[in-house]
Amino acid sequence: MDQFDFETYVLQFYGKGGIYDYGFLRQDVRKALKIRMEKFPEIEFSGDSFDRELIRDIVLKSRGVEDLEYSV
To answer: Are 54 and 36 in contact (CB under 8 A)?
Structure first.
């Protein structure tokens, strides 16, 4: 899965009108993806639900949410 496809996948869940609709923007996902790759280089990027949830928690943390599934 390339980066654009992964961003689209994340937005289908957390973007406007998505399953959970947190209002994520593509730029939010891109910033979080960069952080994810820098902070967790030992975890192979697969573009799966685990990566999607890490991205979710990174974006939410940047918005001040403290009750997260993962420690990011």
So the answer is: yes
Per-residue pLDDT at 72 exceeds 90? no
Residues 6+ apart with CB under 8 A from 36: 45, 51, 54, 55, 58, 72
The string of DSSP codes covering 2-63 is -HHHHHHHHHHHHBTTSSS---B-HHHHHHHHHHHHHH-TTSPP--SHHHHHHHHHHHHHHT
pTM comes to 0.93
Distance CA 46, CA 51 (A): 7
Cβ atoms < 10 Å from Cβ of 10: 25
Distance, C-alpha 12 to centroid of its chain? 11
Polymer length in residues for the chain: 72
